[in-house]
Design brief:
Strand 18 (452-461) and strand 19 form a beta hairpin. The relative contact order is 0.09. The chain folds into two domains: 5-229, Beta-Lactamase (2-Layer Sandwich), CATH 3.30.450.380; 240-286 and 355-490, Rossmann fold (3-Layer(aba) Sandwich). The protein is an alpha+beta fold and 506 residues long. Strands 13-12-14-15-11-16-17-18-19 form a nine-stranded mixed beta sheet, sandwiched between helices. The protein has helices at residues 59-79, 85-111, 117-132, 138-141, 176-190, 238-244, 249-260, 275-283, 303-306, 336-343, 361-370, 387-396, 404-414, 476-481, 487-490, and strands spanning 5-10, 35-37, 46-49, 52-58, 146-152, 157-161, 167-169, 203-207, 213-217, 225-229, 265-269, 291-296, 311-316, 350-356, 376-380, 417-425, 433-446, 452-461, 464-469. The two termini are 47 Å apart. Helix 11 (361-370) crosses helix 13 (404-414).
Length: 506
């Protein structure tokens, strides 16, 4: 394919043997697969991408059609203002359909042959997505098998799938400026008016309606670079994670008891291993009447929307939008660390930080130390033995008065348990991604040289990288009162088979 065309195809459902090992419970709610619309080349009538037949949309035509449709919608908005979002979208669909029908008549006369119904529908969908959704990104956001979307300048786009290797796909837009236009429009819709992408603001972080997280960079890079990380499951419980292979029955019961027993927990792992999904699942074990606060840079836990907790106060940090002061803070910026002191006066039983990234770890650890217990957060770290050094590094960002020794003591007093989640990615070998809990460690006080020490309650074995029971926790009585049946710990692991293509060294 050449020039300004974008192929449209319905991504084929992979055969049963190639599908990811997922559960089928109603609470797991991935968005249903939609047509994959991507941009690549010429205004020809058909083409092929891999083995899938394609319908092609003309990107130049889409640009012109969306401008016409937008102008007509603006005129109608002036004539009849105040419509609800649903009514605006319904009107938009009608206007877009009309505009494309007019384009099809002109195109048919120019070609000497009529456009097909499928071609017209493809252009309607393309234009409507630009006006009301996420433009050419929308089909990927609607594909339940997509995990990450990576854009390296407008000409290079990659997609990570759950069930197959990373795949390069055609370009989304015809130019870098058009890509930035798309991002600015998404920021206008989803950024709360505080976020944009410009010369003065070269980075953009957004939470998309489906919970995906978008990070874009421009001006300081050769082109516009975008990463979108998707949450393929949103409302998930520990039972669901058993089906997904993240935990087994024994581990699920133990983690549930940690939450019900009000233990302070940090969930660790690298990027994209499923820390947030595990945190969501564990939150279902919080009693429904407790008053809980969540703190996030971009809302993605959605505990205030899922409905299993009656009282949730969701705090979202705010990016600055002006010059930086002497401390390096941008005007208007509000961090998670700024929000925690105010939350302490709101009669909360627990605080949950979606992801600890910087100095906010200090007020978080203080909440864990001084509160009723039961607070949780996630933390990026590569290996289990690095956790305490990572905590110390973040604590040192808090101020000059903080030391390693003080950070270690603060962490040892605050944290009861650390959970480590591991990802084994075998898609490059023709396999799949395996996510599972590999370690559950109980805090055991300060040890040699003032460093925190831990007991490995669950850990990997020489033959299995997943977590198996190893050591009885010292607070077993507390967990028993929270509903844990101690006999489960000694009955043996209940993991299903782990179909790895190569052995993982624990």
């Amino acid at each position: 394919m050449l020039g300004n065309a974008a192929p449209i195809n319905s991504r084929p459902v992979p055969p049963e043997s190639d599908r990811p090992e997922t559960g089928s419970r109603a609470r797991i709610q991935p968005t249903p697969t939609a047509s994959a619309w991507t941009a690549a080349g010429a205004a020809t009538a058909s083409a092929r991408l891999g083995d899938a037949p394609q319908l092609v949309v003309d990107l130049a035509a889409v640009r012109a059609l969306r401008k016409q449709a937008a102008d007509r919608l603006l005129d109608r908005e002036r004539e009849q203002p105040g419509l609800s979002a649903a009514d605006r979208e319904q009107r938009g669909r009608a206007v877009v359909t009309q505009v494309v029908a007019e384009w099809a008549d002109v195109t048919a006369r120019q070609r000497g042959v009529s456009t097909t119904a499928a071609e017209d529908a493809a252009h309607v969908e393309a234009v409507w997505n630009w006006l009301f959704r996420s433009g050419p990104l929308e089909p990927y956001l609607a594909d339940s098998d997509v995990e990450n979307i990576l854009v390296n300048g407008h000409t290079e786009v990659w997609v990570d799938y759950a069930s197959k290797p990373r795949e390069r796909v055609p370009a989304l837009t015809g130019s870098d400026e058009e890509l930035r236009e798309l991002l600015r429009e998404m920021a206008r819709r989803h950024g709360g008016g505080e976020r944009t992408l410009s010369t003065s603001s070269p980075t953009l972080a957004l939470r998309l309606p489906d919970g995906s997280r978008l990070q874009a960079v421009a001006e300081v890079t050769p082109g516009t670079y975008v990463t979108i990380r998707r949450h393929r499951v949103r409302d998930v419980r520990l039972d669901d994670l058993i089906e997904l292979g993240t935990v087994d029955r024994v581990l699920a019961e133990f983690l549930g008891a940690l939450v019900r027993g009000k233990k302070n927990v940090i969930i660790c792992g690298t990027q994209g291993v499923g820390k947030t999904s595990l945190l969501r699942a564990m939150s279902h074990e919080i009693p429904a009447d407790e008053r809980v606060a969540t703190f996030e840079t971009e809302l993605e836990l959605f505990l205030h929307e899922l409905g299993h907790l009656r009282q949730v106060v969701p705090f979202e940090a705010r990016e600055g939008n002006g010059e930086r002061d002497a401390t390096g803070r941008s005007a208007g910026e509000i961090t998670i660390g700024d929000l925690i002191p105010s939350a302490l006066r709101m009669s909360l039983s627990r605080m949950i930080v979606g992801e600890v990234r910087s100095s906010e770890i200090v007020p978080m650890l203080r909440v864990m130390t001084n509160g009723e217990g039961g607070s949780m957060c996630t933390l990026h770290v590569r290996e289990p033995h690095m956790i305490w050094d990572r905590i110390a590094e973040l604590c040192l960002e808090y101020g000059a008065h903080m030391t390693d020794k003080l950070a270690y003591r603060l962490g040892a007093n605050a944290v009861n348990y650390v959970i480590f989640v591991r990802l084994v990615d075998e898609t490059h070998r023709g396999g799949r991604r395996h996510r599972f809990v590999s370690h559950v460690m109980q805090m055991a006080g300060l040890g040699e040289h003032g460093r925190p020490t831990t007991n490995v309650v669950f850990g990997p074995t020489p033959d299995d990288p997943r977590a198996h029971f190893r050591t009885t926790p010292t607070d077993l009585e507390d967990l028993e009162l929270a509903g844990l049946q101690p006999r489960l710990l000694t009955e043996g692991a209940q993991w299903g088979p782990l179909r790895l293509l190569h052995r993982v060294v624990s």
